[in-house]
Design a protein that fits this description.
The chain is mainly β and 272 residues long. The chain has two domains: 86 residues, OB fold (Dihydrolipoamide Acetyltransferase, E2P) (Beta Barrel), CATH 2.40.50; 133 residues, NigD-like, C-terminal beta sandwich domain (Immunoglobulin-like, Sandwich). Helix content is 3%, strand content 40%. Strands 1, 10, 14, 15, 17 and 18 form a six-stranded mixed β-sheet that branches. Strands 2, 9, 11, 12, 13 and 16 form a six-stranded mixed β-sheet that branches. A hairpin with a 2-residue loop joins strand 17 and strand 18. The two termini are 18 Å apart.
Length: 272
């Protein structure tokens, strides 16, 4: 298989008190996921835990993510976290990014220290990177061979979001017990007339039986053309367990003056 088939880091664990979620276009009942912690299996580098300002009574709160952010490194090694299209978080207790000069999407647990206009100074309790990738080119009639064509569900919840030039997806599929790597790719060029149409591909690597499990993955779309400003609408197609599905997302791109070098995006290693 080609190098574009980066391993997708997946997670299977018990979720602490999460309510039921909907698969996009299909209501479902809550499926208990087998994680020991909501975050650890979906992140590449292991959870960076820092001295917390939370009391023991808040242990439930402390292990849940506060937000989904983009970790943006600065030239001096420091970093900010882009919370949404308008708000940045400045870590008060971290001088350097744990991911070096790489920009990644991440889950974070933090508490506010100083709230200002546009920038909020926060205490980071823990920070975990999400698998972050670039789209890959469609290979037309070779897509099934190279990228797979196995079903996958997209879960409608707060971490399935298009913002800051990224689309982040919570997906669900079946996993066996052999530790087989699954592969997720976002294909561009599937519609030559529409650069904003993408296809999500899943290669289960023949691991198609087993329990339901979820994972997170993010794709950087900041290199898309923007003829009408920073706001674009993207169309996403994928093969679900109930057939082909389509969803549209309103995506606000990173302002051009804040644009990033695509080569700086960190690709994850596999979990064996």
């Amino acid at each position: 298989m080609g190098e574009s088939r980066e391993n997708f880091l997946y997670c299977r664990c018990k979720v602490f008190g999460f309510p039921g979620f909907d698969i996009i276009e299909q209501p479902i009942k809550f499926i208990e996921m087998k994680f020991s912690n909501f975050l650890l299996p979906i992140l590449e580098f292991g959870m960076l835990t820092l001295p917390s300002c939370l009391d023991d009574d808040d242990s439930y709160v402390s292990r849940m993510p506060t937000a989904l952010v983009t970790v943006c490194p600065n030239a001096d090694g420091s970093f900010i976290m882009q919370l949404d299209n308008n708000t940045q978080l400045e870590p008060a207790n971290m001088k350097k990014s744990p991911f070096g000069d790489k920009e990644v999407r991440a889950l974070v647990n933090y508490s506010d220290e100083v709230v200002g206009s546009g920038i909020r100074r926060v205490h980071v309790n823990w920070l975990d990177s999400i698998r972050t990738k670039l789209p890959v080119e469609s290979l037309a009639d070779r897509n099934d061979e190279v990228y797979g064509n196995d079903p996958v569900e997209i879960i409608r919840d707060w971490v399935t979001v298009a913002e800051d030039g990224y689309i982040t997806l919570r997906i669900r599929t079946r996993w066996g017990t052999s530790g087989t790597n699954h592969y997720i790719n976002l294909l561009t060029g599937t519609n030559p007339d529409d650069p904003y149409e993408f296809e999500l591909r899943h290669d289960a690597n023949d691991d198609v039986w087993g329990e339901w499990g979820d994972g997170l993955i993010a794709f950087n779309l900041n290199k898309l053309p923007r003829p009408n400003g920073d706001d674009v609408k993207i169309k996403l197609k994928w093969k679900s367990f109930d057939g082909d599905k389509t969803a549209e997302f309103d995506l606000k791109m990173r302002p051009v003056h804040q644009d990033i070098d695509a080569a700086s995006i960190r690709f994850s290693r596999s979990i064996e």
